[in-house]
Amino acid sequence: MSVYTSVSQDELEAFLSGYDAGALVGYQGITDGMENSNYFVACDGAEYVLTLFESKSASELPYFLSLVDFLSARGVPCAVPVTNGNGNCLGELNAKPAVLFRRLPGRWLLSPGQDECEQVGRALGAMHRIGLGFDGHRADDRGLDWMRTSATRLSTHLSEADQRLLQDELNYQECYRKDDLPRGVIHADLFRDNVLFSNGRLAGLIDFYTACDGCLLYDLAVTVNDWCVEEDGCVDHSRQEALIRGYSSERQITPGEADAWGVMLRRAALRFWISRLVEFHSHRPGEMALVKDPDEFRRILISRSMGNVPPLEVGVVPS
What's the pTM? Predict the structure, then answer.
């Protein structure tokens, strides 16, 4: 959630005039995240988050907005869009699609412990279980085909060693596609900065804009690779155990998923190494733009490919 499109007070007040939000008290840009422009907006009636979509068109957004509505109505804590006076939640501001969300309480955690990992695992498991009833569909636009195409485009920016690491891992992943694993709606980006905690309790999941149809195990791997990782890229066994314990309390992990765990941790690391490399080498200028370090996921990928992977226990949802 960076700021690429600036918004003046007059522009924001004109936008808010279409909502029953109250008078504008103040607003500020949000630096976390990378894809969209986001602002905290305080009105005399409530607090909101304003999102201006930088790369997605208005026609792409109903899937994501319907998904968060669906999940929220069934008990998954996530930010839901506010409708304007015309009954629409999707507007336009400075030629960008724009949505106003009611702000959730809390902040994201830099250094989560076992308890927080268990909570996020439980929330992810519930999202996967409940999401099976969602009738919207969206293909994953960051799959293996995108990874290979992106790796080719990145080749001129990378050392020979990094080019070789990318190609070797892509070739490995092509041999282990795992298309037979359970699938459903996945968040695909449930990093620490996309989960809010308030007074020690999980308060909300945010930033569903990479959500899609996908392999549930892959989504779990993405989450573990961020929440349960040491600085050297190795998995923290105790935090992974806690996260999986929470997840398994909501959704059973199958034997096939347990067997594919190492492959999926590597795939998740590869995907985010590539996406961070793409962002780093095609950085968009912005007033408060954030660029994350690609080398973090290079270290994680190397660690996973060396087999430093705690086993995934087959879990059973308690009766």
Answer: 0.93
Question: Rounded mean pLDDT of 242-263?
Answer: 96
CB-hemisphere CA count at 13 Å for 145?
A: 3
Instruction: Work out the burial of residue 96: count CB atoms within 10 Å of its CB; fewer than 13 is exposed, 13-18 middle, 19 or more buried.
Output: buried
In b/e form, how buried is each residue of 61-74, taking b as 16+ CB within 10 angstroms?
bebbbebbebbeee
Segment 176-223, tens digit of pLDDT: 988 899 999 999 999 999 999 999 999 999 999 999 999 999 999 999
3-state secondary structure the chain: CECCCCCCHHHHHHHHCCCCCCCEEEEEECCCCCCCEEEEEEECCCEEEEEECCCCCHHHHHHHHHHHHHHHHCCCCECCECCCCCCCCCEEECCEEEEEEECCCCECCCCCCHHHHHHHHHHHHHHHHHHCCCCCCCCCCCCHHHHHHHHHHHHHHCCHHHHHHHHHHHHHHHHCCCCCCCEEEECCCCCHHHEEEECCEEEEECCCCCCEEEEHHHHHHHHHHHHCECCCCCECHHHHHHHHHHHHCCCCCCHHHHHCHHHHHHHHHHHHHHHHHHHHHCCCCCCCCCCCCCHHHHHHHHHHHCCCCCCCCCCCCCC
> d(Cα 42, Cα 30) in Å, to the nearest integer?
13
- In this predicted model, what pLDDT tens digit does every residue of 148-175 receive, in sequence order? 999 999 999 999 999 999 999 999 999 9
Give me the pLDDT at residue 287, please. Answer: 52
Nearest to 207 by CA among 290, 113, 304: 290
The per-residue pLDDT for 130 is 98
